[in-house]
Amino acid sequence: MKKLKYILYTFAFLLLTVSVYAQQQRFPKPEFDSGYTQPSTITPEPRALQLEYFDVLILAIFLAVASYLIIKKRSRRGILWLSVLALLYFGFYRNGCICSIGAIQNVTLSFFDATYAVSITALLFFVLPLIVTLFYGRTFCAGVCPLGAIQDLVIIKPLSLPKWLNKTLGLIPYVYLSLAVLFAATGTDFIICRYDPFIGIFRMDAKALMIILGVAMLLMGMFIGRPYCRFLCPYGVLLSWMSRFSKRHLTITPSECIQCKLCSKSCPFDAIDYPTNEKEVVKSGLGPKRFITYALIIPLWIAAGVFVGVKSHTFLSKANPDVYLAELLISQPEVKNDPDNIDVQTFLASGKSMETLVEEAEVIQDKFYTGSMIAGGFLGLVIGMTLLNTVVFRKRQDYEPHKGNCYSCGRCMDYCPVEK
Amino acid sequence: MKNKGIVIFLVILALVIVAVFVGEYMSDKPNKSKANPYEYNIDEFKDVDDDLVLYKETKNFKIGFDEPDAVAAGEGKILVSGDGSLKIIDFSGVLQNEFSLPGKSHSLKIEGGSVYVTLEKQVLVFSENGDELLKMDLPGENTYLTSVAVFGNDIFVADAGNRRIIRFSKAGEKIAEFEGKAGDDILHGFIIPSPYFDIDINGEGELWVVNPGMHALENYTFDGDLRAFWENTSMKIDGFSGCCNPAHFTFLPDGNFVTSEKGLVRIKVHKPSGELLGVVAPPVKFDTEDQAPDIAADSLGNIYALDFERKIIRVFELK
Does B11 contact A at CB distance below 8 Å? Predict the structure, then answer.
C-alpha cells in the first residue's frame, strides 16, 4: 500500500512535468480577456560575479558536508536531506547551470580555442568534486549533484542488472565523454547540456523531446537506480577514476564485517562487490590464460577504435553547423533560394563568401579526423581494459563497495547491523 | 521470467530514450530548421467581425501619381500630393487645379482657403491657385516634419526627427515648441521610432498629438501642457500595435477620431474617450503591411484613404 502511494505520487509529479513543454513561445503575445497584463520583455542580466563565487562556496560547503556525513557521521538520512537541498539549490534555483558535468565542455574548449577563456567558476565546478572524490569517494554524486538527487528520489523497486549488461551499458559514459570532448574541442556543440534530461524539469521549460527524455529517465529510475549516472554521465567516468584511488572511501561496516549479508541487496546500483571464492577461481585455471589473451588483444582493440574513429569522422563532423551548411550548399545549391531556410538565409546575409565557409568547414573536418581517431583509440582501450578487468582476480573477504561505481549514497551503511 | 512486466516497461523506455537522442541529433540542422516561432505572424488579427465594420467602400479615385504622398480634405475639396505636385479635386473626383511643389510633401491641410504643405524641413502655404503665400524653414540635421495643423491664428507642425511640436503664427513667426513631457510619470515625451508623427485640431480647437511609441493620443493646450490622453496597446481590434501606431489620424465632424495603422493595416473610428466605435476598413481591405494609408474626412463624415499600394484614393461612407 505504501509503495502504491509512492508510485502514485511519483506519477503525479511526472504528469506535472508534462505542462512544462505545453508552453509555447508566441509572437505577438496572446492577449487575455481576464485583464491579465503581459509583463514586458526583459533581458536578464548575467549572474553577478559575487553570486557565481557564492555558488562555488555553496558547492564547497555541500561537498564538505556530504563527505562528513558519509565518512564521519555515516548518516544515510543526512545525505538524503543534503541531496534534497542540492536538488533545490543547484537544480531548481540555479536551473541546473552551472554544473560540474557540463563544465567538462568549458574546460575542454578552453584548451582548444585560444579565444575562449573558461571562467574560474566553471573551472572550480569541474575541479572541486574531482579533488574531493580523490580523498573521499563519490560523495559529490551522493549529496551534491542535482541530477543524481532527482534520480535517487524516485527509486522504488530497483532491479539488479546482470553483470554483462551492467558492464556493457557502463561503456556508454565513455562514448558520451569522448563525443562531448570531441564536440567541445571542435567548437561544434555542448552536447552534455543539449541532452541533459533533467534541465528542462529544473527550468520548467524545454523542448518536448527533452521533457520526454527526462520523464523517461525518471520512470526508468524507478526500477533501475540512477540510470543517467550509471549509463550516461560523462563526468561519472572521471569521478570513477578518481574514486578508485580515494584515500578514505565509504565502508559498509564501521568495523569488522560479520558476513551477515544484510547489505548484499541494499545497493540499487549493483555497486557492492561480494567476497570472492578463491578456490573456484584457482580450480578453473582460466584466470591467467584469459588475462594474457585479453592483455595481448588490447592493442588490437585500440587499432580497431582508431579505424572506426577515422571512418566515422565525416559523419561526426556533420554535427558541426558550418560543415553541415557547407555540404548542404554544395550538394543542394537551390536551398539558397529558399526564403524559409533561416540558417541558409542567415549565412547569405552575413556576407561571408562560400569559399570562406568551405575553408572553415575543411579546418573543422581536419580537427574531427584527429579527434575521432583519438576518441576511437581511447574507446578501444576502454573496451580492452574492461574485458581485462573481467578476468582480474581480486581477493575479497568481505562485502565491499566498488570504489569506482559506488555513489556513496549510504544505503548499505544503513543495513549494516555492526556498530562502532 | 521475474518482473516480466517491469522489464518490458524498461525496454520500451530504453527505446524511447534512444529515439529521443537520435531524433534530437537528427533535427535542428540547417535544412531541417523548424518554422520560426518568433515570426511576426499577425494573420489571426486580420479577421474582423463584420458587425464591427461600419463603413463601406463606395468609390475610389485614380490620382495619377506614381508615388503618392499625402491626402487632405476640407472646404469641399480633396487635396492629394505626389510626384512633386499637388492636385485639388472635388468630391466627385474632377480635377480643379494642380501645381508643383518644391519637393516631396509629407502632409497637407486646407484651411481658410489656404493650402498648408510640409516638406522635410519646410512648411509652405499656398493659395488654392498655387501661389506661394508663406515659407517657413526649419533647418537642422534631424528635422523631419510629418504633419501640420491649423486653428485660428496658429499653425502647429510636428517634427518627428526632433520629437517636438512647433507653434507658429500665421505670419510665420515661431511662438513656441514643446516635447510632450508631462510633469508626472504618466507619459514621458514623444516616442517616435519611425517617421510617423501626426497632429490635428478638432472642431473644438483641441490640439491632439499621436504619441506613436506609446500607442497614445494626447491632448495638449496650445502652450504645450498635457491635458488629456488615451492609449491602448493591443493587437486586438480596439487597440494599436507594433512599434508606432497610429501612423495617421483625423477627426470626423462629430469629434470622433479616425485612425490609420501600419503593420496590421486598418482604419478605425474611436470615440473621443478612445473607445472603439467601429471599423472603417479591416486589414483584408489592403494589399500591403508596410504603409498606413493617409486619411482625411469631409464635413459629411466620409473618409478618404490614400492607398499607397494601389495609388488611389478610396472613399468610405457609413453603411
Answer: no
Return the pLDDT at A249: 94
Classify strands A400-401 and B303-307 as parallel, antiparallel or unpaired.
unpaired
All residues of chain B having their beta carbon less than 8 Å from the beta carbon of residue A207 are 24
pLDDT digits (tens, 9 = 90+) for A100-144: 999 999 999 999 999 999 999 999 999 999 999 999 999 999 999
State the Cα–Cα distance between residues A307 and A402, nearest whole angstrom.
Answer: 33
Enumerate residues 6+ apart whose C-beta is below 8 A from A41. Answer: none
Helix A49-67 to helix A76-86 angle (10° resolution) is 170
Average pLDDT of every residue of chain B: 91
**Closest approach of A123 to chain B, Cα-based (Å):** 28
Q: How confident is the model at residue A26 (pLDDT cuts 50, 70, 90)?
A: low
Indicate if the pLDDT at residue A345 is higher than 90.
Answer: no
DSSP string covering chain B: -TTHHHHHHHHHHHHHHHHHHHHHHHSS-TTSPPP-TT----GGGT---GGGB-EEEEEEEE---SSEEEEEEETTEEEEEETTEEEEE-TT--EEEEEE-SS---EEEEETTEEEEE-SSEEEEEETTS-EEEEEE---TT--EEEEEEETTEEEEEETTTTEEEEEETTS-EEEEE--B-SSSS-BS---SSS---EEE-TT--EEEEEGGGTEEEEE-TTS-EEEEEE-B-SSTTSB-SSS--SEEEE-TTS-EEEEETTTTEEEEE-TTS-EEEEEE-GGG-S-SS-PPEEEE-TTS-EEEEETTTTEEEEEEE-
Nearest CA in chain B to A196: B21
CB B205 within 8 A of CB B256: no
State yes or no: pLDDT of A281 exceeds 70. no
CB neighbour class for B105 (10 Å; exposed up to 12, middle 13-18, buried from 19): buried
Contact B6 A324 (CB under 8 A): no
For B71, residues 6+ apart whose C-beta sits below 8 A from its C-beta are B78, B79, B80, B81, B108, B294, B295, B296, B304, B305, B306, B313
Cα gap A254→A329, rounded to integer Å? 65
The domains of chain A are located at 2-24+49-262+400-415, 276-390
Q: Cell digits for A143?
A: 549529496
Please state whether the peptide bond connecting residue A104 to the residue before it is cis, i.e. omega within 30 degrees of 0: no
Please answer yes or no on whether A220 and B10 come within 8 Å at the CB atom.
yes
The pLDDT of A139-150, averaged and rounded, is 96
Q: A333: nearest CA in chain B?
A: B31
B44-318 has which CATH code? 2.120.10.30
Least confident of A10-19, A317-326, A347-356: A10-19
d(C-alpha A68, C-alpha A56), whole Å: 18
Global model pTM greater than 0.80:
no
Residue B66 reports pLDDT greater than 90: yes
What confidence score (pLDDT) does residue A396 get? 84
Domain extents in chain B: 1-34, 44-318
- Computed over every residue of chain A, the mean pLDDT equals 89
Residue A154 sits at the chain B interface (C-beta within 8 Å): no
Per-residue pLDDT, A10 = 64
B36 vs A194, A207, A342: nearest CB: A342
